[in-house]
Predict the structure.
Amino acid sequence: MLESFDINSWTGPFPAETRARAQGALERGGVLYFPKLAFALLGRESELRDARLSDGKAKNISLDHGTGKLQGTSASGERAALLAAMMERFGAGATVFVRDLLPNYAGIERARTSYRPVEVKDRAYSKLHDDRLLHIDAFPSRPMKDGRRILRFFANIAPPQPDGGGSRHWHVGEPFENFAKAFAPHIKPHFPGKSWLWDKLGVTRGRRSAYDEMMLSLHDAAKQDASYQKNSPQTAMAFPPGSCWLVYTDQVLHAALGGEFALEQTFHFDAARMGEPERAPIRVLERLTGRTLA
Ligand code: SIN
Ligand code: FE
């Protein structure tokens, strides 16, 4: 489930064997782990290890690299500029790394960059927003339409601690297909016309497909099922300071239980262009339900 790589460089070229192992493990629902790939903070950037950078409302601080717009932070002026520059350097580095590691993924799209400076354990969330509960990712306002994938690259930038602390702690659940088999038959269809209306009102960026509706329902159903949270198969993973990891979060059930100071870069990729497209959540759900979902 955890596929480890010795890589300590942010740029390729990487050996063909490494690239094939990375793509194969990712598509099979593995978590790629890079224990020696550290994202180093430079100069005054170390002052950004500060939970007060959060505005206390948004879950994460996010950067849209297209517009340079920073959201979810209390920082302004010089401090906001330092934060944005650090996040942009991370996002650009992550993008080169992922493109060099997965050269078959032509057309992979860099989406938002996020910074998560608040200790996960200490936050209060509503159940559906609580990422300490096992879930797959599905974005309420950004439809993935024909099964576009959500691939996320994370870095733990907490300071290394002499006692070995500072790790980001995750639980990873059972394979997507097993999860979908258990939940898909009980999912109620969304109200007809709702996705059309939300698109018209600008609540969503484009219209949700049946696939989007199903993924949102699966996300919610998993979080709301206390018995599933407690009893389903789970593997604990710890990502120490100075490490990175890469995972298809629309496929891999995950929960973040603890840790602070993580950076994350989201990518989108066409399901049809995967090496094994039949492993994409949309194809799995179509097989299980016998429906066309986009
Ligand atoms: C999540 O995607 O559920 C949160 C992951 C994290 O912040 O470590
Ligand atoms: Fe998530």
About this structure: The helical segments are 16-27, 77-101, 176-183, 194-201, 210-224, 226-231, 281-289. Residues 2-289 form a domain with the Jelly Rolls fold (CATH 2.60.120).
